Amino acid sequence: MSMHLTFRQLQVFTAVAKHQSFTRAAQALYLSQPAVSMQVRQMEEQVGLPLFEQLGRRIYLTEAGREMARYSAAITQQLEEAVQVINDLKGLAGGHIHISVATTGAYIAPYLLAAFSKLHPQVTVSMDVTNRETLLHQLAENEVDIAIMGRPPAGLALEATAFLENPLVIIAAPDHPLARIKAITLDMVATYPFIMREPGSGTRIAVEQFFEKAGVALHASIEVSSHEAIKHAVRAGMGLGIASLHTVREELLAGRLAVLDVQGMPIERHWYLVHRQGKRLSAAAQAFRDFLLNQDAARLLPA
């Protein structure tokens, strides 16, 4: 039996499988929902088996659908690499970079991209800001060219290169009792409530490892899902917080937050450029990587 499938059908099918929704797939592809449904129906006719089943309001891949999804992803990746090779032959003109950035990286990435774009205005960029778990999934599925994040976990097929320091500091409201004290011990700060990111975030992992190594128990009184929420809660006097120094520069200059003088701080971390091992970077993505690694990236950030 032969199947006559089009690349457009594979694109639509992959989008529906990813979003588990005809509506969301249509939105992502800028198509109408009937057009998406028609492409899937035509593909099912070629395959000779249903690719999706509907249970309640949700759709799921059938066994045939799961097999097709695996091959469809491989075919799509091969074609995208072919496009990259052709773009490389043309040079940077018309190049595109898809970058995924960890949540805290949103405070530095725009400055890095702005500096790069001044040198290469012909290169277009897509930037996705997401949490650590989603970012690692995007890398594993080859959905992005490069990621900017903290140190990735060991054991994954990733190439990570440090390019910028990312110190973590303890922040407090300016009128907090500890804001006027020098050489504060970790035992002292541990007696106050802490506002922390959710378990699994890169910042939280680094903080817990730091306090555990120091033999000090740190308890998160409040958990939030964003650094902006941490800053607002700290300003409101709900407790102390730990944040990347890059994320609180404006508040420090305006006097809305204070960095505590804590012994052993800051926690020294780095930002990393990360991509899949063995991935063939496009000319544009390679130029961006070289741009950041061949200079002092800190100079690209506001003072």
Architecture blueprint of SSEs:
Blueprint: H1 7-19, H2 22-29, H3 33-47, E1 52-55, E2 58-61, H4 63-90, E3 96-102, H5 109-119, E4 124-130, H6 132-140, E5 146-149, E6 158-165, E7 168-172, H7 186-189, E8 194-197, H8 202-213, E9 220-224, H9 227-235, E10 240-244, H10 249-254, E11 258-259, E12 270-276, H11 283-293
Parallel strand pairs: 3-4, 3-5, 8-9, 8-10
Antiparallel strand pairs: 1-2, 5-12, 6-12, 7-10, 7-11
Largest sheet: 5 strands, mixed
The share of residues in extended strands comes to 15-25%
Strand order of the largest sheet: 4-3-5-12-6
Alpha-beta classification = alpha/beta
Order of helices and strands, N to C? HHHEEHEHEHEEEHEHEHEHEEH
Distance between the termini: 65 Å
Shape: globular
Low-confidence stretches: none
In helices, the fraction of residues equals 40-55%
- Number of strand elements: 12
Which oligomerization state do the chains in this entry correspond to? Answer: single chain
**Mean pLDDT figure:** 89
Radius of gyration: 23 Å
What's the total helix number? 11
